[in-house]
Specification:
alpha/beta; Rossmann fold; pyruvate-formate lyase- activating enzyme; 3 domains; 5-stranded parallel beta sheet; 12 helices; 20 strands; binds iron/sulfur cluster; rSAM_sf; aspartic acid methylthiotransferase activity; cytoplasm; rSAM_horseshoe
Length: 448
């Protein structure tokens, strides 16, 4: 069950409970709303009981996410009764109000003004906001040592299984100076790793015609290479998510080779069969993609590649699936996530023939994960003996858990230390890999 975001409650200022669901992009939206509320003097309530109003930031990407969002709204209604709904699922206003007629307001994704106005109406802001209490980097839901950095909203692609462009609109990039000012504030606030996110990171700036904006007295183009170059000067790890293999991604390799950004690319390939990719309306040239990966690895031998795939897409035959498994064996990706296709309401793929039965999807899911388990075990075994930098996420009596350059928080594997010594979360530790299993590595710190 989702829990309201807890924060130290104080004073008799109006209290807002907050439930944040969904992906990292929704999390960033939650952080922005919380930052603004805090700047206005609101207190974030640690529980439903103490809140004057509860905001539920929902996810509407898949039908299962919508069901989870409805559950969370129902829980907030039952526990508190004064509820404002926002986020991706908010575009289905009628469905939410039919289920919960007592909801105070419903707003869509990244409608920051609308959701804050609804909060003002439900629990008026105090007269004297304590602006100084708000850190320059804003309030964050991640640990202090890493932070998500959203560089654009929306998407100009039209993948047939996806309703994100309907929910969040077309690509809308932030000027480079805005992104860099936020990144600077995050680093000043203690972030040692910046996780760059968007719907399509490679497309950054296209809508702005790559127009430059001034940062530290010089123009920086709203273009991924220039942005990464500038981000790489801040002294934090820079990790790129949701990158599509457009030709200009090659320009990022020298930045990786120089150590300015991490040798890590999260590329959602989704499938390898040409006919499935065509039905998904994705770029369909997986042979060329394998060649591209080979070229990238020549330029940056330590490149970590992460991807996600969908199994059971309408029309996916056993042959298509075999193509995907062969491609995975060949590509030897470092990290892989897999989803069973969901027939999302409003997605064009819903109308396609050849819907795959659930038991076949489940069976293909298990087979894909087994193939990738073997790939992962072999790839990680090849890491033993290497010395890498590790960022520490957690320390307890069993040791320390961290991540290397190849591992993003929440979705990838871990680097584990049996003896944490004096390590603390957020420390950067130089360590040698001593052992590997299917998904994780064990390491020992290098003596200073
Ligand atoms: S690239 Fe495709 S899957 Fe990703 S958000 Fe855009 S339309 Fe959706």
């Amino acid at each position: 069950m989702p829990k309201p975001v807890a924060e130290r409650a104080a004073s008799n200022a109006p209290k807002v409970g907050f439930v944040s669901l969904g992906c990292a992009k929704a999390l960033v939206d939650s952080e922005r709303i919380l930052t603004r509320l805090r700047a206005e003097g609101y207190v974030i309530s640690p529980d439903y009981d103490g809140a004057d109003v509860v905001v539920v930031n929902t996810c509407g990407f898949l039908d299962s996410a919508k069901a989870e969002s409805l559950d969370a709204i129902g829980e907030a209604m039952a526990e508190n009764g004064r509820v404002i709904v926002t986020g991706c699922f908010g575009v289905e206003d009628r469905r939410i109000r039919d289920s919960f007629p007592g909801v105070l307001a419903v707003t869509g994704p990244h409608q920051y003004d609308a959701v804050v106005n609804a909060i003002h109406a439900a629990a008026p802001a105090p007269h004297a906001p304590f602006l100084d209490l708000v850190p320059r980097a804003g309030l964050r839901l991640t640990p202090p040592h890493y932070a998500y950095l959203k560089i654009s909203e929306g998407c100009h692609n039209r993948c047939s299984f996806c309703i994100i462009p309907q929910l969040r609109g077309d690509l809308a990039s932030r000027p480079a100076a805005d992104v860099l000012a936020e990144a600077e504030a995050l680093v000043e606030g203690g972030a040692k790793e910046l996780l760059v996110i968007s719907q399509d990171t490679s497309a950054y700036g296209l809508d702005l015609k790559y127009t430059a904006s001034d940062w530290r007295g010089s123009p920086v183009k709203a273009r991924l290479t220039e942005l990464c170059d500038a981000l790489g000067s801040l002294g934090a790890w820079v990790r790129l998510h949701y990158v599509y293999p457009y030709p200009h991604v090659d320009e990022l390799l020298p930045l990786m080779a120089e150590g300015k950004i991490l040798p890590y690319l999260d590329i959602p390939f989704q499938h390898a069969s040409l006919s499935v990719l065509k039905a998904m309306r994705r770029p369909a040239n997986q042979e060329k993609t394998l060649e591209t990966i080979r070229r990238w690895r020549e330029a940056v031998p330590d490149l970590g590649l992460r991807s996600t795939f969908i199994v059971g897409f309408p029309g996916e035959t056993e042959e298509d699936f075999a193509v995907l498994l062969d491609w995975l064996r060949e590509a030897k990706l470092t990290r892989v996530g897999c989803f069973k296709y969901e027939n999302v309401e409003g997605a064009p793929s819903r109308a396609l023939d050849g819907q795959v039965p659930e038991d076949v999807k489940a069976e293909r899911f298990a087979r894909l994960m087994e193939v990738q388990r073997e790939v992962s075990a072999a790839v990680l075994a090849g890491q033993v003996g290497k010395t890498i930098d590790v960022i520490i996420d957690e320390v307890d009596e069993d040791g320390a858990t961290g991540r290397g350059p190849w591992d993003a928080p929440e979705i990838d594997g871990s680097v584990l230390f049996e003896d944490a010594g004096d390590m603390e979360p957020g420390d950067m530790v130089r360590a040698t890999i001593i052992e590997a299993d299917d998904y994780d590595l064990w390491a020992e710190p290098v003596a200073e």
